[in-house]
Amino acid sequence: MSHAPFSSLALQPALLENLASLGYTAMTPIQARSLPPMLAGRDVIGQGRTGSGKTAAFGLGLLNRLEPSRFRVQTLVLCPTRELADQVAREIRRLARAIANIKVLTLCGGLPIGPQIGSLEHGAHVVVGTPGRIEDHLRKRTLDLSQVGTLVLDEADRMLEMGFQEALDAIVGQLPTRRQTLLFSATFPESIQAMAGQLMDDPEHIHIQGGHDHGSIRQHFFRLQDNKQRLVAVRLLLLQQRPESTVVFCNTKRESQEVADELCAQGFTALALHGDLDQKQRDETLVRFANKSASVLVATDVAARGLDIDALDAVINYHIGRDSDVHTHRIGRTGRAGSKGAAYTLYTGKEEHKAVRLEADLDLSIEPEVLPPFRLLEHPAEPPAMVTLQIDGGRKAKVRPGDILGALTGEHGIAGKQVGKIDLFDHCAYVAVERNAAKPALRKLRDGKLKGRRFRVRRL
């Protein structure tokens, strides 16, 4: 843990004095590790949980570079939601108090665009905004990004989750190629790695551990008396562990459908994923599982190929996989991105030979464990945190993620933090909202308009 003082950095004296007056003396680990490369002008990827002090880190980095006498937009900070943008803008203003005439402007959706255009005419040094609204201003030519020297992407994983990739591409296309790019993300999935590869120049990657070792997967094996016990075992494990997201691997299409149906009958929110689904069903299934509105996905190995679900809490092998590669591939889907994962494998005496082979191939010692107590079956399954709303309008109707977010969070709407993933397809869109916000969200979308039109909306 580093507790170096801010005074050890090459910051402008006015910034240092202001930090002292705000009571900021020692740096947090992410500040101590990210500020030196930032101040040296390097691109930085900062990976750490919320509350790690990242806003002050990039805030100081960008303020140190500003030239107050040049009244141009020199820094653009992109955030996924209006609440976060407001919070970030407030923090930057606090850090900038000691520098005269620094103007920080917030541009977010869900608010009238007229007053924003008026503010932009007066100029600003720092613009903090949501991708959808920044893109609107670029389209209207009311925002000029040609002088931007620093681009900050805050909560980049959440921006991609909310479907802002296309808006980000459009915005980056308007920025100078010679610039500093700072990217902050709690997780670092493949989509973020790809984005960093496109946007950044030899970035310094700073990862502040959230406690877990990367890829720590705990394996558990259960030797069952017979096949009839398999489903009971799955239910017991789900009720005891209460994972937010679980994939149950089955060997056949039919079995995966039967297990999903049976789990639903027992009160779980389970979906099947197998080769008999058409593309629309497959899309819908993956959307609902990835956005946390279904907690169990029962899949065959073939159907699960290319399944890019990042925060998977548990994998349950309904049977031992046909070989050790399949087993390794299945369990490798949990414990990603620095989080802990658990893998539970069920087998009967008839599969004992497969267990022996796994031990030899993977250098494991398989000690069968006792199943959780049967009294757990009396407990109800917990519903998932989110629900999915389907909108009968997508890309072809020019609907964008920012429109959906704006419609939900506008006047008398729900909070931005209650909105989850937004997925856009050609003819429909899906948005996840917190379960307790589902009714007002549905009402808001049904009564309001998107792109000046009314669309049919239903809860899945």
UniProtKB/TrEMBL annotation:
Q: Which InterPro entries match?
A: DbpA/CsdA_RNA-bd_dom, DEAD/DEAH_box_helicase_dom, DEAD/DEAH_RhlB, DEAD_box_RNA_helicase, Helicase_ATP-bd, Helicase_C-like, Nucleotide-bd_a/b_plait_sf, P-loop_NTPase
- What Gene3D superfamilies does UniProt report for this protein, alphabetically? 3.30.70.330, P-loop containing nucleotide triphosphate hydrolases
Where does the Helicase ATP-binding domain lie? 35-206
Q: Which residues form the DEAD-box RNA helicase Q domain?
A: 4-32
Q: Name one GO cellular component term.
A: cytosol
Q: Name one GO molecular function term.
A: nucleic acid binding
Q: Which residues form the Helicase C-terminal domain?
A: 216-378
Similarity remark: Belongs to the DEAD box helicase family.
Q: Which NCBIfam families match?
A: PRK11776.1 (NF008744)
Q: What is this protein called?
A: ATP-dependent RNA helicase DbpA
Organism field: Tamilnaduibacter salinus
